[in-house]
Amino acid sequence: MEIAMTHTIEYPQPWLIRLPSILKLKKFLLITSFIGAFITLFIFYDLRIAPYAPYKYNHFIGISEEAYRNGVIKCNMIKSNKPNNEDTNIRTSNPRFVPGTKTIVFKNGIILNGKGEKILGDIILKNGLIHAIGQNLSDDNEAIVIDVKKKYITPGLVDMHSHAAVTTWPSLTATDDSNEITNPLTPYVRAQDAINPSDPQIRIIASGGITTSLIIPGSSNLMGGEGYVIKMRPVDTLSVDDMGINANIDTKKERSWRWLKMACGENPKMLYKSLKQIPTTRLGEAWLFRKMFAEAQALKQKQDDWCSAAAKSSNGEQLNSYFPEDLQFESLVALLRGDAKLNVHCHESYDTETMIRISLEFNFTITALHHVTNAYKITGIIKKRVKNNITVAIFPDLYGHKKEAIEASTKAPKIFVDAQIPVALKSDHPITNAQNLAFQAAKAYHYGLDENQTLAAITSVPAKALGLGHRIGQISLGYDADVVVMQCIHCATPLEVYIDGIPQFNTSLSVLSNETSKQSLSDNIPKSDFARKPVKSRTTSSVILKNIDRIYVDKNHSYSSVEGNISIIVKDGIIECIGINCTIPSNLSSYEIIDLNGGHVLPGIIAFGPALGLAEIEVESYASDGQVDPINNPNDVENIIYAVDGLKFGGKHLEAAYKAGVLTAVTAPLSSKSAITGVSIAFKTGARSIFNNEPIISENVALHAKIGTPYKDDRIPTVSGQISLIRRTLIKNLAQQNIIGRVARGDIPLIVYVDSKDEIATLIKLKIHIKNLGGNLKLVIAGGAEAHMLAIELAENEIPVILNPSRPTPRLWTAQHVLTGAPITNKTGIDILYENNVKIGIGVDLLSEGRRSYLLGFGLERDLIWDAGWVSRNSKGLISQKDAIGFITWNLKEILGLKMRNGLLRGSIANFVAYNGNPFDISTKVKIVAGGGRSDILIDPEQD
Ligand SMILES: *[C@@H]1O[C@H](CO)[C@@H](O)[C@H](O)[C@H]1NC(C)=O
Ligand SMILES: *[C@@H]1O[C@H](CO)[C@@H](O)[C@H](O)[C@H]1NC(C)=O
Ligand SMILES: *[C@@H]1O[C@H](CO)[C@@H](O)[C@H](O)[C@H]1NC(C)=O
Ligand SMILES: *[C@@H]1O[C@H](CO)[C@@H](O)[C@H](O)[C@H]1NC(C)=O
Ligand SMILES: *[C@@H]1O[C@H](CO)[C@@H](O)[C@H](O)[C@H]1NC(C)=O
């Protein structure tokens, strides 16, 4: 897991600290008993056995015939067929087929088979398999025929990196079974033993079209353990084994792959450093790997020697020692024998090389390198040092939350593909919600993969890397009947998901539904791939933008090409003219003329989220402003901190945001657990210094607080205490001239990060209470996972909600009422808030893993435009494009009370982003960025 270390470096739990001393005691007892046993054995051996022992000390005379025969069986198994996915025969049965499942005939689909081929036609799902693909297909009368009317049919998506079901939703201390953190070397633990088949995540993830997942242990340990591949189809038996991809296969007869997880770099060393135990460095990590592999290698050698001795002595004469075995090394020996697929979590290029070096020293194969943030720089090492094609399982754009993840590049997927390194995209659920795996793929497409490579990265490539390329990840004859029907490849949610031929959701396209024949969904064939030529980034001071389709100025003003030719003229950073009838200036040579090809223009996007300007690497104290410490920094007025005092311009995150048209950042002080965190700042993301172009928009945007379990601390260990602190602080200062007094009287808002419906209700009451005392609290709810349940009350009391993230998940106990969207729920929370006229903003997506000690940013400011697009598309026409754009621009400005001039008015400083198409289309690119604290206008920005 990506963030495995964060909660332990900051707050080691007391029992973890005590662990070494318990271990020492155990070690002492163990050693003493060993010495005792040894002496006894020695005496016994010397007196009784030695005279008769033929060769060596460790050869006891005679083992039972049964033990001997068992050893020989094991030798035969070692020699027998290896797991095989190269089988080219078309499969005729799916071991997971459920008798009684009806045959399905899909008519008129656009079939994308996952291997880069597109077929217009029909598919038959029968006996749990893809039974036929072609034109004008039909089956017997029993079959259910569904006309999908030119919608896409793709293979079920395959996620090769998930921690779902070993960390369940809602997150509870009791259900986190991802890392056995008592020893950095636990190759012997198995995810299969911890998977909770009733985890609600399984359904939610399947609703995103994910049909198969590799569930693996986390990355706190060097050798995390064994993974397990499940289909995302809950079973009546509630059996984990029945969910397994190999359910009903006699794995003794039909050898199948095993999957191992290992990790290197920061996560293991940071955790064990906090426990004062090896490894605390990469030095220690590599040593431990070698030590374990050497021991596994020795065991394998002993087994091989035993087997050849047994083979030689087959004429009835049985060996007198047992077949050598050690359960601790069993999975590693399987790896050395080539029976297991190894998945390694690494980030730094040199960590990757270390793992490859060790794999060569000990002759094992690395199947997939996961994350490998900057490995796009070492494609040579990955490609040339090893014989197999290592798959890289990566994120398209997450980065920056820790040192080893800072050197990411959005170009990485394309670089790998060009180097003929297979690319898989994965969720690392719950780090990103696996339900949105297709969105990860869409982003990789935006940054350069082509359509075929993109789909392959979430279907056939991971399927092959799992050793399951003969069963899943393709729509080909004889493959498991796992398919997804989608409206379009890169938008919103699947219409239907079939696993082993069984429909998973009761939608209009499902055989479960009575609406099947009605086909209310409109035909919608998206336009073909946008021509994506490489461009060179440059700057200018004056531009004329023509051929614009739409300009969104603010809530009440927009221009459309329907009215006539609309254009924007910017002279030295100032809007000279905007709209229709702009006269083209005579001195044309001093302008760069940009044809927007019917693109859209919006005001600069506002990023409401953690860390921008305060931290480049949030978990590195040196590279961040630091975390509010509630113990040494009680929330007294004089201790309130101001983000403005820690602001730092420049850096990778701000640059990336600026280039994505995110021109304003609103950032609160970083805090771990403090209920009242401080005062936020609003500033221009492109600014280079405080003395240039007046980069500060507001020093005192709002007072921020956070309530809920993730923010409990030793001083205030209860949610009730957090709420009481906020109430007392406000009431005490109501008449004071300090910052809290200003908040209580409504000069600036109070923004509370909260998800629970009940906690939100309490805050609504607090607002009313303060009003009754003569105050005027401008309360804003941030987070707001369950806010839709109080939509009416929020609207009545004029309390806006900044959804953060925009697609919340029921990951917290206090956020279980999240609506996860189609095809599970009809609506989402944001739809309901919208219908009830609650003012809505969308904040930057955050780390979605239980939000342990603080809110972590992943550099997802760049996604804001697509987050808005998702909300609009997924609302089935309820939320217009314009309103969704408002969620990341003018609504936020209004909610936060930002006093900044509109950057799309004649005479004002230009502050806008222009796209070469509709920004909600994933293939559209940013064409122009103007403003954001820079006088230069950026053309064709290129993301790192
Ligand atoms: C994807 O594959 C199809 C079918 O092989 C091909 O026609 C199409 O050109 C490919 N697309 C790209 C972008 O390579
Ligand atoms: C390395 O392992 C493979 C099996 O995975 C085996 O075929 C090969 O002989 C081994 N090479 C050496 C040098 O041991
Ligand atoms: C690696 O992939 C290439 C195609 O990119 C293929 O030709 C080659 O056979 C593969 N090698 C192995 C060992 O699978
Ligand atoms: C379909 O309609 C029938 C008859 O109207 C009804 O009995 C049945 O429950 C419906 N099934 C579903 C899944 O709605
Ligand atoms: C734009 O110009 C056209 C024709 O010259 C004129 O009819 C129209 O009124 C003008 N519109 C505005 C808003 O000036």
Averaged pLDDT:
89
List each distinct ligand once. Answer: 2-acetamido-2-deoxy-beta-D-glucopyranose
Outline: globular
Largest β-sheet summary: 9 strands, mixed
Bin the helical content. 25-40%
**Classification by helices and strands:** alpha/beta
Beta-strand proportion: 15-25%
Please state the second-level CATH architecture of the domain at 157-472: Alpha-Beta Barrel
* Terminal Cα span: 24 Å
Instruction: Give the C-alpha Rg.
Output: 30 Å
* CATH class descriptor name of the domain at 157-472: Alpha Beta
Q: What low-confidence regions span 5 or more consecutive residues with pLDDT below 50?
A: 5-20, 45-60, 516-531, 850-854
Strand tally, please?
35
Would you identify the CATH H-level superfamily of the domain at 157-472? Metal-dependent hydrolases
CATH topology of the domain at 157-472: TIM Barrel
Give the helix tally: 23
